[in-house]
Design a protein that fits this description.
The complex is a heterodimer of chains A (113) and B (112). Chain A is mostly beta strands and 113 residues long. Chain A has strands at residues 4-7, 10-13, 19-25, 31-38, 42-49, 56-57, 64-68, 74-78, 87-94, 103-104, 108-112. In chain A, strands 2, 4, 5, 6, 9, 10 and 11 form a 7-stranded mixed β-sheet that branches. Chain A has a 4-stranded antiparallel β-sheet with strand order 1-3-8-7, with no helix packed on it. Chain B is globular, with a radius of gyration of 13 Å. Chain B starts with a strand and ends with a strand. Classes of the chains: A mainly beta (113), B mainly beta (112).
């Protein structure tokens, strides 16, 4: 049972390049999330998806797009990377709108130069 | 939207002493309050949670209290051990919209 799997684990981009972070969960969870973690800033919600086919903005959505491809997969896309997007990105999932535990992926360390 | 404030940002306690981390939230409709522990280089993991219909919950050395009127909740760790050293995050969510908002974290150091 893999839980939540993110790819890649590390990535270096040049300013202006685009990339997609992939996330997949095998726990049959309805809700999925993307967070970024910066020193002293905690975990900030970028986008979330309460169910397949729906997505909603979180606290810091600017510069990002998401796609809930199916129930298992939730991808995060940076169309034109900026140095301010250097961060550790975490994907998470939870059962549903029941106030339950969120399970996190191992994180993606992204550096934009 | 919901805003979660967490204090202190750093906390150092002697091994064996107690540690308390406090959080406040802004949205009175929030009704689920989890706490996560993140060890260095690892992913956050749930350690305890509480729902708005409960005032206190305990799990061995860890307890969480909730004051709905004041909109604050706290994590209490007793008899601290070296393995308690980590970053702790509080969070708040509303069951109806499923958005989980985190505080900025508390780095806990357990001193020998």
């Amino acid at each position: 049972n893999a839980g939540v799997t993110q790819t890649p684990k590390f990535q270096v981009l040049k300013t202006g390049q685009s990339m997609t972070l992939q996330c997949a969960q095998d726990m049959n969870h309805n809700s999925m999330y993307w967070y970024r973690q910066d020193p002293g800033m905690g975990l900030r919600l970028i986008y979330y998806s309460a169910s397949e086919g729906t997505t909603d903005k979180g606290e810091v959505p600017n510069g990002y797009n998401v796609s809930r491809l199916n129930k298992r997969e939730f991808s995060l896309r940076l169309e034109s990377a900026a140095p301010s997007q250097t961060s550790v990105y975490f994907c998470a999932s939870s059962v549903s709108r029941l106030g339950t535990e969120a399970f996190f992926g191992q994180g993606t360390r992204l550096t934009v130069v | 939207g919901e805003n979660v404030e967490q204090h202190p940002s750093t906390l150092s306690v002697q091994e064996g002493d107690s540690a308390v981390i406090k959080c406040t939230y802004s949205d009175s409709a929030s009704n689920y309050f989890p706490w996560y522990k993140q060890e260095l280089g690892k992913r956050p993991q749930l350690i305890i949670d509480i729902r708005s219909n409960v005032g206190e919950k305990k799990d061995q050395r860890i307890a969480v209290t909730l004051n709905k009127t004041a909109k604050h909740f706290s994590l209490h760790i007793t008899e601290t051990q070296p393995e308690d050293s980590a970053v702790y995050f509080c969070a708040a969510s509303k069951v109806r919209d499923d958005k989980i908002i985190f505080g900025k974290g508390t780095r806990l150091h357990i001193l020998p």
